[in-house]
């Protein structure tokens, strides 16, 4: 895509039909929970949108987020839209390396100052900057430096959004989320381990269409994609409601596709679009494949008390504590009972009988 | 503390602390009551104390016609919320998993829409008994701080459980569940030191009454 070309022109040049483009707009509108009347507006806006410059910074991450985007969708409209943005810096995907790559980043920042979108995946180590550097620059200083001229920041993946796996106990690198460092820029969190590709492209499409960030929930996630829990949209939900559960991964319940709550499913506390948009072009999602939800789009999911422990189960041994409590209670109860008896015996012993003469004496004294 | 950490705390150390206070308190109080002992009855037995005691445990569970007629509301609303509490506590699938984890035994769950409906009915019954308590001059006069505290810690788990189940958007879902568990832990901590102890002492009291009468050869 040459400079100055609009998104519509670029798409047509790559052989995307008007029909295909409108289908993408309609899908985007429905995913963002916008009324159908907004489809033409989205189409018009995207058609005219100038290619935005995107700088993608990868910090403490596993490249899973990039894999999710690039591998799971063989050329689709979403994929091309993504190609069509000007991805000016992405050290996994770009051809340049070393000083040339950094020069590309600096050039993009200068050229589009105040307008570029900054995408970040991975967490930032603050315990020691040496834990993760790029071209000798610490993650923290590169983030602060690049964030300055960004129009908005998209934290892709749970690591960038909430610290993710690097932040899991005992957090040896002192990993933090983007939002822990950058406070003065709009940040859109697109968590997931990895996030659904269409959610990332959808967020970018929203930004291109409206020039603003989508409506976010309390955790900074776009409500359009993270507005409902996995549990509420799960196709296995009727089994939960009927009390039909898989007890192991190969029992009758598992084979019949019953609810995976007992196997530790975090669906009830996890907000994501997995159950609706699904993965691999809408083929399936973890629960459909027979595995409970890990809750990967929630903060601290790695330390959530065990992936295979049901949400309502205690995370510590309660039985042992209960046995000790009953034992200690019995001992204390018997001791108190004995003291009570002794007190009573003393009172009985000290009891002096009152005679009628005593009472008369008291009456005389008055 | 993040919402996940809070949930982890209430599911772990929080529950441990609450369980220890709950059981320790109950056992201490029951032991104290049992150690009060009874004076030896020198009168000749006219019937079986044990049979009378056991019979009374059973018969006192059914309201006698006189009480039913005099305070219909208390009996009906009282039964509704007690039965509702037991159903929601013992037959909701996630609760059974908790018992299974701690006690090692399990039983079938009721469908969630049934639990949901029972919860609503129980909350309504509990609200009704509070209104009745406030409006009835005698009951109001007899009620103190403890009575209202006990009512509050009883209704809180139901309300918070309902909010958590429906994920009402006042807080993130892990926080809602954490608040629900916390409310149960509050109930457990308050339990041994308040009138809530009747859950355990009531059968002893009934047996005691029945046994006295049984020994004398009369029905209690």
Chain-wise SSE layout:
The complex is a heterodimer of chains A (366) and B (220).
Chain A: H1 7-13, H2 18-31, H3 39-48, E1 53-58, H4 64-71, H5 77-84, E2 86-90, H6 98-111, E3 116-121, E4 124-125, E5 133-134, E6 137-138, H7 139-147, E7 150-156, H8 157-162, E8 175-176, H9 178-181, E9 187-190, H10 197-210, H11 223-226, H12 230-233, H13 237-242, H14 252-255, H15 274-277, H16 318-350, H17 356-365
Helix pairs in contact in A: 2-3, 3-10, 5-10
Chain B: H1 3-11, H2 13-35, H3 49-59, H4 65-70, H5 72-91, H6 93-103, H7 112-135, H8 137-142, H9 145-166, H10 173-190, H11 198-216
Helix pairs in contact in B: 1-2, 1-10, 2-10, 3-11, 5-7, 7-9, 9-10
Protein described:
The complex is a heterodimer of chains A (366) and B (220). Chain A has 366 residues and is α/β, with parallel strands linked by helices. Chain A is built from 17 helices and nine strands. Chain A has a five-stranded parallel sheet, sandwiched between helices. A two-stranded antiparallel ribbon of chain A has the order 4-8. In chain A, a hairpin with a 2-residue loop joins β5 and β6. Chain A starts with 6 loop residues before the first helix and ends with a helix. In chain B, α2 packs parallel to α10 and α5 packs antiparallel against α7. At the A-B interface, α13 and α16 of A face α1, α2, α6 and α10 of B.
